[in-house]
User: What shape does this take?
Amino acid sequence: MRFIVGEGKTDKGVYLVEGDTARNLSALDPRVGDDLMAFASGRADPATIAAKAAEAPGDPPGAALSDIVPGLPIRRPGKIICLGLNYVDHIKEGGYDIPDYPALFMRGANSLMPAGAPMVRPTCSEKLDYEAELMAIIGTGGKHIAEADALAHVFGYTVFNDGSVRDYQRKTHQWTPGKNFDSTGAVGPMVVTPDELPAGATGLKIESRVGSEILQSATTADMLWSVARTISTISEFATLEPGDLIAMGTPPGVGHARTPPRWLKPGETVEIEIEGIGICASPVVAEEDLVATEAAE
Assistant: This one.
């Protein structure tokens, strides 16, 4: 199944996507709620509610997918855990040694925004970089999860742009400052259940671009740590819970490693596409322009 959370012309909620049409499951069953947390946690069964929608094809009526303004798939995730250094060529372009344990860091909720919303280049830096990433959404939680069982804990997969402010990322040995500027991490809009994709979402083409300029192009088969191994590793120290988000790292081609560096500029739209999942597009805006616009409103 494919889902999008958002707002249409007449309603909002969780939509089941079928081709170019979206059906509002929240309007069909109040247990669904306004994001995917009820499905991820098992409080509501998506297959049952999708079957209910199939039995009543005109109630609620289908909406054009293009009319849905995306929201975050999980509005209030408990944990946002990101994997750095997960593609060998990206590790090399950054000047790092290949690690024997995954480079993990966390993002705060304010750093995220839905696909289609502005990606904000902060006033204090022009070094806003892009990072195309696969993101897993946890369904069944747990701790000390065996790698062999880990994929059963995934509710779905989506697209992530791990926007990074590089000079702030490099200020300390910890990457927290550069990874947590407000509205720099774009998520969505599509969430695809695991049965629609290869196991662990491996072997999918992953690409970032601005217009016709291809910035990154690789495959998720190149990840050092698979989704299953990453979930198992994280669960050694943290109890995973429904709705937790895990970002799986980026392939080579990022802006800071280019000569000259290729930073995102206000007025551009950066797109991240993952085969079988979809496109996450973000217009880039300057923080000062955004503040001025909001003040005028």
About this structure: The first helix runs from residue 25 to 28. The two ends are 39 Å apart (CA to CA). The chain has a mean pLDDT of 95. The chain has two domains: 2-70, 80-296.
